[in-house]
């Protein structure tokens, strides 16, 4: 009996290779680099826009540009940046406390310095961690002042609250924390130079 050796035939089916070719690796690196760049630019844009929100609030309340603050009633004209808002608080557990704070010199200075400091930090891309802490504290106090959970104000009228928990103050606070956590001050900012300064490198909470 003779044994016939069958020739090996190559079919059209092949298992996919687990090895990455040089081309696919290069393409993957390029995609990753592009994604990182897009994320950096997006965060930088968000940082600048948020910084402008704080800076504009400071400038309008200081000089009375006629938007939220009427002309001639700015801080430099003797107006109080906190009196109108805090005296109008009409709900929440700190209603009477905010009424006592309204128009106080220390409250005006703290509020305005907070707006200026957070705004400059975001625009320049420096001290984002400190800005996140200060800005979140400001947003928390303003959230309590407006007290979104209330369906009715202290006089019984409808509060017109659209959400009992999440409002723009919460969004701003989350944005501030996210920008600080992501180190968003490097792109379109002075974050890298700021981090190299000796007193900042020794105190990382200033980054």
UniProtKB/TrEMBL annotation:
Bias-annotated ranges (Basic residues): 1-12
Key words, A-Z: Membrane, Transmembrane, Transmembrane helix
UniProt-annotated stretches for the region Disordered: 1-26
Transmembrane in keyword set: yes
Transmembrane helix listed as a keyword: yes
Transmembrane residue ranges: 41-59, 103-123, 130-150, 170-191
Name used for this protein in its record: Thiosulfate dehydrogenase [quinone] large subunit
Organism this protein belongs to: Streptomyces sp. R21
């Amino acid at each position: 009996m003779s044994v016939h050796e069958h020739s090996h035939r190559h079919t059209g089916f092949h298992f996919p290779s687990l090895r990455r070719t040089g081309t696919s690796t290069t393409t993957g690196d390029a995609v990753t680099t592009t994604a990182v760049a897009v994320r950096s630019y997006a965060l930088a844009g968000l940082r600048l826009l948020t910084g402008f929100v704080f800076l504009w609030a400071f400038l309008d309340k200081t000089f009375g540009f006629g938007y939220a603050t009427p002309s001639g009633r700015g801080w430099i004209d003797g107006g109080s940046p906190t009196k109108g808002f805090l005296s109008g608080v009409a709900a929440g557990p700190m209603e009477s406390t905010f009424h006592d704070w309204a128009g106080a010199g220390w409250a005006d200075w703290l509020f305005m310095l907070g707006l200026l400091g957070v705004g400059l930090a975001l625009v320049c891309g420096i001290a984002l961690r400190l800005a996140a802490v200060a800005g979140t504290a400001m947003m928390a106090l303003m959230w309590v002042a407006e007290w979104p959970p209330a369906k009715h104000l202290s006089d019984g009228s409808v509060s017109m609250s659209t959400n009992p928990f999440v409002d723009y103050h919460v969004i701003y606070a989350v944005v501030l924390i996210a920008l600080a956590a992501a180190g968003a001050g490097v792109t379109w900012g002075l974050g890298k130079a700021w981090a190299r300064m000796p007193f900042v490198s020794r105190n990382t909470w200033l980054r």
